[in-house]
Amino acid sequence: MPADMRAASKPIELRVDLKERSYPIYIGRDILGDGTCLAPYIPGNQVFIVTNETVGPLYLQTLTNALSIVLEPGCQIDEWVIPDGEIHKTLDTYRAVIDALIASRHDRSTTIIALGGGVVGDIAGFVAATYQRGVNFIQIPTTLLAQVDSSVGGKTGVNHTQGKNLIGSFYQPSCVLADIGVLDTLPEREYLAGLAEVIKYGVIADSEFFSWLEDSLAGLRAKLSEVTAEAILRCCRIKASVVARDERETGLRAILNFGHTFGHALEKITRYETYLHGEAVAIGMVLAMQLSRLSLGTSEADVQRLSRLLTNAGLPVKLPEGLDLAEFLNTMSLDKKVHRGCMRFVLVERLGRAQVSDEVDPEAVERVLLSSGLSTHD
Amino acid sequence: MPADMRAASKPIELRVDLKERSYPIYIGRDILGDGTCLAPYIPGNQVFIVTNETVGPLYLQTLTNALSIVLEPGCQIDEWVIPDGEIHKTLDTYRAVIDALIASRHDRSTTIIALGGGVVGDIAGFVAATYQRGVNFIQIPTTLLAQVDSSVGGKTGVNHTQGKNLIGSFYQPSCVLADIGVLDTLPEREYLAGLAEVIKYGVIADSEFFSWLEDSLAGLRAKLSEVTAEAILRCCRIKASVVARDERETGLRAILNFGHTFGHALEKITRYETYLHGEAVAIGMVLAMQLSRLSLGTSEADVQRLSRLLTNAGLPVKLPEGLDLAEFLNTMSLDKKVHRGCMRFVLVERLGRAQVSDEVDPEAVERVLLSSGLSTHD
Questions:
Q1: Of A52, A234, A257, A344, which one is the catalytic site residue?
Q2: From the centroid of its chain, how far is CA A215?
Q3: ipTM above 0.90 for this complex
Q4: Which of A16, A99, A146, B160 could form a disulfide with A240 if both were Cys (CB 3.0 to 4.6 A apart)?
Q5: If interface means Cβ-Cβ distance under 8 Å, which residues of chain B face chain A?
Q6: The pTM is what?
Q7: What are the φ/ψ torsions at residue B243 (nearest 5 degrees)?
Q8: Are the beta carbons of B167 and A131 separated by less than 8 Å?
């Protein structure tokens, strides 16, 4: 833990190394209201903030005040508030933001700022990637999930009725600002859902971090600044290192999708109404770990440690009752992680070590789902 | 002229140098029916061809036959035919193509082939750039304009009711195939509109090429294979060299927009019904040349040479009667080439030498428009 974290005024800086698209992530408490962090990353005299109806009332004013102080007088600051929720991550919402940018005459030198969770970041990022073929983009993630996940990697996009993130692009921000102060107003359930992704990083890439999480869980659940900042930093560092080696997800990067093939299908089959993304991923990770056990002989002890940590983090680890096996399998096969007709899974040999496999036996997938309580209706 | 051009069987290859995004352009006669050119650029076992209702009936069968011969048996080849015309270059058409891809279950390893003019290329390219965050893309431009313009540079996108190309991204194809044989079925008017862009390259970057065009115009208008192939090669080479130095249009690349600030406004104000893009650019180039004379003291002789070459190429060089000055100026100011509130123009000091200027005197713009016959209604 760096000493400057306790001072809370000077953020930690983590550099994401992507050659000419490299950018910094600033992590600290209450940095949202300090425009000096952002000012160097706003080259033009127009700013367009995208937020949602939940985050807007809490932090929009703080951000615009901070910007008004540090930017040149006469700088144009516009805002656009989208409805809250994954069901609004659509091409229609995207189009509304584009229309608003055009109506306010934002030109190619504008800066788009995403102030919100993953949905806001994904939509605003896709807008930034495609408005006038790409404009400057800044991310201010306001959920734990977004701070450890969406803020690194450049994935942007919207959902299609047939599946998540089927439309989008890779587009890097010029900077990311992770303010741990905003987590105080985040609903408990959302915070815990973010912990699922935090735990994921330990499982796929760093067993020492996994152990640290087992030890630090109480502090994390209590949102102690130092523990939370340390967790975010370590997650972002892991993700940054993976992304730097495989920006466009041609190989290695896919390990970040651990738990997501099952998780996405679960979210979709329950119409995005029952589970938060992180909750679905928690269940998906346990399923993927069981699949690893069948496919790679991963130890039962590791399966149990993951399941226990997730449970202690207040997360679900079991599929709900009443799901249909055939429907679940069909939904999984529509996921974009399907590669040349084969379903792609991320498997974990042992905690801290993941691999991508296109050769999982479909019967093993069925066995995992059946033993998790899915039924066959025939 | 390389000897192998006359044989017509072996295409010329021009390499566009964009580091890891480099790709070849093949130029030759009747190469569309020879799948061996394309096969190395189709890594997966799914192909999705986007074409339009005009080009489809002429060349789709030839292309699919060629693909069926060289691709592995069982390879999935789907087609999507969009309506012809710039008014269909919309987010709605884009969405329909995306829906079709999803309905046919194309995954991330699919290859999208654009078979058509600029509109097909721009939409299909934007689809390729954003479907599942980017899939493999091949361009087969079937108009002269697309062969010399859209096939190099990676610009993709759709129009918005408020302006052209306001939505899109930069996305490079893995290869481009310019078949000069298809120009035989291109309507004369469209072929001539393509010549406007050919002439543009001489004006902005190569006075020797401009002179060659003056000398070779008869051969070009007669579509002599050797002359046409040579013109396409030289245009692509100029554009490739400009794009290689400025892929994302932060500076130099903007010179390719010579004539386009005026041209886009003219297209829009006449609702894309009166002029083909190249025709509007022809008129726009003459206006931009007159603006260069007022702003940089470009010689009247150069203005006349450009005007004469365009006229001899059967292209319009004068604005139509009855346009309103205020409306024209307002339309220009909405163009995405507006930079930090200033209209951006490409000016030509002398034939072969262009520069970008954000500091054109608005009065000079008005004078050029007024002397071209625009009226003030007040």
A1: A257
A2: 24
A3: no
A4: A16
A5: 44-45, 91, 95, 98-99, 102-103, 105, 107-109, 126, 129-134, 155-157, 160, 162-163, 165-170, 248-249, 334, 336, 338-341
A6: 0.87
A7: -65, -40
A8: yes
